[in-house]
Design a protein that fits this description.
The protein is of the alpha+beta class. Helix content is 40%, strand content 15%.
Length: 694
Amino acid sequence: MSQIHVVVRGETASQIAKKYQLSVERLLALNGLSSQATLFPGQQLIVSEPKKPKSAFSQQTYVVQRGDTLVGIARKFNLSLLRLLELNNLPDDATLAVGQTLIVSELPKVQENGMETVFYEVMRGDTLTSISRKFNIPVEEIRQLNRLSEEATLFQGQKLRIRSTPLQEINLENTELPDLVVYTVKEGDFLAKIAEQFFIDTKTLCQYNRLEERTPLEIGQKLWIPQNGNYPPIPSSEITTANIIRKFRKYLDVEILDGKKIFRLGLNAPVGKGQERMFLADIEKVQKRLVDLELLSPNVETPAELFSKLGNQPITASSIPQTIAAIERFQQLYCRYWAERPERMALLECSHYTPGVVATHDLTFKLMRELTHYTLTLPHPVEEDKEIIAKFRNFVPSPFTVYPYGISYVGSSKPVFSPELQKKLQLDDNLMKTLLKISSHEGNLDALNTYDKAFLSFGFIQFAGSAVNGPLAQLLARMKHEFPEAFDDCFGIYGIDVEYKIRSGQIQNPVITFFNLYAKNGKYRLQGVEAEKAIRDDVEALSAFIIAGHHPDLIAVQLQEAIRNYMIPALNIRFDVNLPSLQLKNILLTDVIRSPAARAVIIDLTVNQWTHRVRQMFSDAIHQLASELNVKNYQELCQLDERRIIQTIIKNNAHDMRIVRRGNSMLNSDLSLEKQPFTPDELAAYHARINFTS
């Protein structure tokens, strides 16, 4: 029996603890009291450890001492960190308190009615719900196994039978669970400053070190620092920058739906078709993920229902037909593309895939665990009462995917050409329609791609990264140069910048930079490809591009850059004519291609393939058609049917669906295939060419 002390008026916890040779922390822990608890006369306090008779059901416990960590305790008792957390029903980021009691031994196992069970001894504060979570089994199963009614209450020391579910433990050295490091206080340090450096709040720092928030620090004093993600401290010279970025990121609402927490422990056995013995805990995990993805009703084939129906009998595939159907729907939606070819499976580092089955380390399990749906609610850059909603996911099923964790977002901000903007950009109606059509192929003004070799592509013609002085760096430099305030409002406050030089009025050598809040190597300021990769993996940073795609000034820059870097080069492509009866050098492609639809194909394919590839495709098609029709002079060459030219390009490149789709899209658009009259300048050049060839 435990020794009891009855509190008298005026007594404090400190006095009582001293009387019974206990620490205050241990006294509070024995009685389940917080450090702010108030004692009252007549209150009964436990002041000694209960003496428990040794039995087959007893468990070894450990009382937390100052300086203890979860990792250290696990190693001391030869447990994995994961098992220590499971035994004590603790979350991954649990904080230890001095005097806290932890279970540090495994439960003895017993064979009963052909089922392996353990006996669990109820502790102070336990409930059926907390025990069910600790062992990852349904509450109803515990009730039935122990013949408990719904009104039954638990008492300390009670023995409960629990079905033993083998847990897959992870290597302690490879865990990403929080740990503690020691920090030595330096001159000028104070609690808030140290907390900022380590990405934690002052309250958390005080809790780990049992300090009041206004406690003065001494030089040389040692503090325990929880390592959230193991990020090193930010240098004091960078604190202001980091705080500005943190401040504005708070206005971003980023919802992430994945299966990492559900499948943290993996599966004990496969779940699905043809399985003769499945675990309730595994079925419950798979079902929860399918429910989250809205592929399964939450009230179908629940573990409690299965246990009630089957008791201790093995669970087979015939017991969960709707769950298996939902697994197959998941595979159809998310797995089929990757399973079609070995090289795609290899990209995902998977070698196994079984229709209708989920098993640890196979393709279906990987995607159930790591497939991530993002929902971003972002502030509009100019309309205060308006929000931007963006939804996208990773594992983009594309033949151009090289980074499966990258995303593709089509965007929602479409180009709108006001008369003023059309005049400013010097666009006629046909070129305006061409830009709109190209946008439907590439994405909208706020479109994003991070899954292909470019690392990061943005905007309605996908300005691509992956290079200094590349299209994306050029675009950002132009935005910053022409609209510095808008650039800072959309990019700078989230840590994204661009450095460049101006020579002879031209932007030269632009390079993207990024302040990476989550740098695990201590390298917070990044440039070029390093910056783009860090932005690619930071969904809050990607939000900056989506916001910028809705800012009118920055939209105008996108359109100007598209015209400067793609449209003008496309419309100035030149090629040579080498026919038996006609040889010409360096003639404009637009002498032959004069219809709005065919010129749109030139521009569209230039965006996707660039000028040298477009020159070759059109040259091949023109020569092929001219040879078939026995073209003899320049006039006949310029009268070739442009629909047939585009159809020939599509036929010659049938292996590339990008070219096929774009070509057919323009042929079926409202853009005309009728040749337009030459402009006066074009006409003069045309007559000169005729005179030259006649």
